[in-house]
Amino acid sequence: MTAEEFDFLVRLLEAPSPSGYETPARRLLRERLDGVADSIEVDMLGNLYATLKGSGGGPRVMLTAHCDEIGFLVRHIDERGFIWFAPIGGVDPHLSPGQRVSIQTASGPVAGVVGKKAIHQMEGAEKDRVIPFTEQFIDIGAVDADEARRLVAIGDPVVFASRVERLCGERIASRALDDKMGAYLVLRAFLDLAGQQRLAGDVCAVFTVQEEVGLRGAGPAAWGAEPDVAFVVEIGHGTDTPCPRCPSYRRCPARQRASADPWAQRQPRPLRPADARRAGGGHPAAGTRRTARYRYGCQGDSAEPRRSRHRPGQGADPLRPHPLGGP
Ligand SMILES: [Zn+2]
């Protein structure tokens, strides 16, 4: 990966785009596709479609990944200026207390810290309890409701204020590898195909929205793109991390179907629907599959192993040489 490509990937990963608020990520993707794709469209939900026309006669191919991420939503500002929030997607309530967050307001980001009852004020088993989101709040430093409400509005989306971090080797951590990494792979495949002799069939890259809140974009996107064949890129669980309940990670379907080592050279392999269910978590292929099975009578998807899904710092290894031999 070139320095310019890595810089783009970092900007994509850091563009705040919780489900339903994907505009910043979609804008970046669209900038790269402008002048390359033969046509670009955005549907009512916000799914972004870029098409390369084929030379004629071949199957229409869809490449797709979701470009939304988990986050939070401002639901209430109390009289003392504390901000109460709800999760967008499957956020683990264990992980949010103490985190710095960035509220995406109409006039720009506002920094905050997620608070909860201090450990000194807790007793006994209360210390072991998972603090539900209803008992967590965002402190932006406001002294009262007026000051908070001047800055923040009900409905503003919120993301963890974590940047892309370089880990050892060529690895990175980011809050949004699920699934901006997939979106980036789809983009790169599309750009590579655009630089080659046209395929017989059309190629349609689709960057879907609202995956984290119920695979909402993928189904309509499969209807919109009307593919003969669809390749869905999504993360799967990296199963090489310690887990007391799974002493033998070899039994994990993600291991069997993709690779337990998220740092290893990745080879997308077929992931059966049952495997996706066993591995846990939603997969936009399920949305595409629903439409595919219903409308086209076909299905198929792939999973990219990632460590620490749905956390402020998921891990991946994007800097390895391009599998197609490019930069
Ligand atoms: Zn995902």
Overview of the structural elements:
- This protein folds into two domains: 3-69 and 175-316, Zn peptidases (Aminopeptidase), CATH 3.40.630; 71-160, Beta Barrel (Elongation Factor Tu (Ef-tu), domain 3), CATH 2.40.30.40.
- The chain has eight helices and 15 strands.
- It has helices spanning 3-14, 23-33, 145-151, 177-194, 218-225, 253-257, 273-279, 284-296, and strands at residues 39-42, 48-52, 61-66, 71-77, 83-88, 100-105, 108-115, 137-139, 157-160, 165-166, 172-174, 203-208, 229-237, 302-306, 314-316.
- A hairpin with a 5-residue loop joins strand 1 and strand 2.
- The radius of gyration is 21 Å and the shape is elongated.
- The relative contact order is 0.19.
- Bound molecules: zinc ion.
- Residues 66, 178-179, 211, 234-235 line the site of zinc ion.
Structural class: alpha+beta
- CATH second-level architecture of the largest domain: 3-Layer(aba) Sandwich
N-to-C order of helices and strands: HHEEEEEEEEHEEEHEHEHHHEE
pLDDT below 50 for ≥5 consecutive residues: which ranges?
252-281, 292-302, 321-327
* CATH H-level homologous superfamily name of the largest domain: Zn peptidases
Helicity range: 10-25%
Provide the number of structural domains.
2
Individual helix count: 8
**Assembly level:** single chain
Overall outline: elongated
Please count the beta strands (DSSP E, at least 2 residues each).
15
Radius of gyration: 21 Å
Task: Calculate the mean pLDDT score and round it.
Answer: 82
Would you state the CATH class of the largest domain?
Alpha Beta
- Describe the strand arrangement of the main beta sheet, using strand numbers: 1-2-12-3-13-14
- Largest beta sheet, briefly? 6 strands, mixed
Strand content: 15-25%
**CATH topology title of the largest domain:** Aminopeptidase
